[in-house]
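Weekly structure sync, notes
Attendees: PL (lead), two postdocs, one rotation student
Agenda item 3: pending single-chain targets
PL asked that the sequence for the first pending target be pasted directly into the notes so everyone works from the same version. It is reproduced below exactly as submitted, 140 residues in total.
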Amino acid sequence: MLQEFKEFIARGNVMDMAVGIIIGAAFTAIVGSLVSDLINPIISLFLGGIDFSGLYLLLGSGEYASIAAAEEAGAAVFAYGRFIMAVINFLIIAWVVFLLVKAVNRVSAAASRPEPEPAPAEPAPTELDILMEIRDALKK
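Predicted structure, written out during the meeting:
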């Protein structure tokens, strides 16, 4: 059984998958930072500084200044603003990943494109061809 496990781990596709997961985790951090640190502030600027994550409905009695205060007090809240922000972030992340994959595919296609074959050179004229040209020139 141990030998079977070693063979399973040594297969190329398992190692490829492990590398893909590790790179994917690092890529997730990059895309997350791109969205939260660069794109969301620009969107917020155009929306007049609105942050949907603070929108909520209180499910019960009481009044709280913010969703954080309500949650700290243990009140039940319907945090629909966080859901809206999660959907917006998903759409932005999906768009960024789409653009990056499209760019990588374009570069990959350009790199794998075969070089055009040179046009076949005309064969060097033989002695017979040269003699035929001389004969034709003399006939004129």
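Discussion points:
- Residues 12-46 form the longest helix (35 residues).
- The chain has one domain: 2-115.
Action: rotation student to compare against the earlier draft before next sync.
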